[in-house]
Amino acid sequence: PTATTTTAATRASASARSSDAPSLTFAAIARSLIAGGVAGGVSRTAVAPLERLKILQQVSSSSAYNGVYSGLSHMWKTEGVKGLFKGNGANCVRIVPNSAVKFFCYEHMAHGLLDLRRTFDKDAEMDVLTRLGGGAGAGIVAMSATYPLDMIRGRLTVQKSAADAAKSGGANYRGIYHAFTVIAQKEGFGAFYKGWTPSVIGVIPYVGLNFAIYETLKDQTVKMQGLRSASDLSVFAGLVCGGVAGAVGQTVAYPFDVCRRRLQVSGWVQAGVQAGGPVYTGMFDCFRRTVAEEGVSALFHGLSANYIKIMPSIAIAFVVYDQLKIILKPEIKISAG
User: Fold this and answer.
1) Are the CB atoms for 211 and 133 separated by under 8 Å?
2) d(CA 16, CA 221)
3) How many angstroms separate the CA atoms of 81 and 75, rounded?
4) Are the C-beta atoms of residues 30 and 90 closer than 8 Å to each other?
5) What angle (nearest 5°) sits at the alpha carbon of residue 245, between those of residues 244 and 246?
6) Cβ of 134: how many Cβ atoms within 10 Å?
7) CB crowding 183-198: b at 16 or more within 10 Å, else e
8) Which of these, 306, 133, 141, 318, lies nearest to 214 by C-alpha position?
9) Between the CA of residue 12 and those of 6, 7, 18, 127, 128, what are the distances in Å?
10) For residue 192, what are the CA distances in angstroms to 82, 96, 199?
11) Which residue ranges in the chain fall short of pLDDT 50?
């Protein structure tokens, strides 16, 4: 009887663990992709003015964008409401598929790493390092798949107004498709991956830490509050966990984000705030010259605005995703088991 009971318990445990693994049914995949895409679009639109200010601070030498309030005020006065959301359409075209792929890949990669660990240790559970690896892998896949859109979005965000562009002899990109065709014709398809290397390096700690810290903080909060599962957490608790995760991840990866943006507009004279600016030969040259000519602090230009942006952005993305998973009742769910 004892042996039978032990065997039954073992089977039950194995069955429970198996049920935690993400499913590859069409319904589960669709639900996860929809939840991830909507989460990304909502979170980025909510902080679009701060996102544009961050990019302008990274690539512009104008003192008008030095502070958060002064920068937003300058955009409002010179470009109106449209100026606050310039580039957000392109950003959403990029971030919706990026976020969908990122969340979906994280679920599968994290469990894939857990399954790999269980081949050596059958009692292995989801931990910080496993989540970090899953998040890093998901970030690389999602970023690489949508990088051309990110490059176009960056240029649309920082280009001058049509009047200023005409004065300097340049011409504005009229939209995503127009930007794509002009860049392809004048700079070649390789231009769409300018800044890709620092992006890959930066996305590893950024996305990896986002997922690892968020999921771990949720698990700890569930234990502290005596809840049954993470799905019982309040929206406020989820927002706090997401905000902390976003702040830590962004701080570590921020210099690579600055380098990426500068490489994306390097040598671009058409309607750009960087017209006549430095032309970098690559990531190391960008880091070297930025530090030599502007100081180490230049690698953190826009970080203050980004803290105000990234904490609510990441928090909203995670909470919207979790709530949509509950509403849509997807089969995919990360757990500590």
Assistant:
1) no
2) 22
3) 8
4) no
5) 90
6) 27
7) beeeeeeebbbbbbbb
8) 318
9) 10, 9, 10, 22, 26
10) 25, 19, 13
11) 2-19, 270-276, 330-337
Round to whole Å and give the CA distance between 38 and 100: 8
- CA torsion 190-191-192-196 (nearest 10°) is 80
pTM exceeds cut of 0.85 = no
Question: Within a 10 A sphere around the Cβ of 313, how many other Cβ atoms?
Answer: 26
pLDDT at 271: 39
What are 235's two structure tokens?
Answer: 């929206």
The predicted pLDDT at position 168 comes to: 52
Q: How far apart are CA 206 and CA 213, in angstroms?
A: 11
Cβ pair 20, 112 in contact under 8 A: no
- DSSP 8-state assignment for residue 272: B
Per DSSP, helices labelled H in the chain are 2-20, 26-46, 48-59, 68-84, 88-118, 128-158, 162-167, 176-187, 196-225, 235-265, 283-294, 303-328
Of 214, 20, 261, 25, the C-alpha closest to 103 is 214
Q: Residue 209 has which token pair?
A: 């830490």
The closest of 257, 272, 70 to 171, measured between CA atoms, is: 272
How far apart CA 245 and CA 208 sit, in angstroms, is 10
Q: Residue 135's pLDDT is what?
A: 94
Contact (CB, 8 A) for 57 and 302? yes
Question: Is residue 268 helix, strand or coil?
Answer: coil
Contacts of 74 (CB under 8 A, 6+ apart): 64, 65
Burial group, residue 219, by CB count within 10 angstroms (0-12, 13-18, 19+): buried
**CB-based contacts of 210: which residues, under 8 Å, 6+ apart?**
135, 245, 246, 249, 314
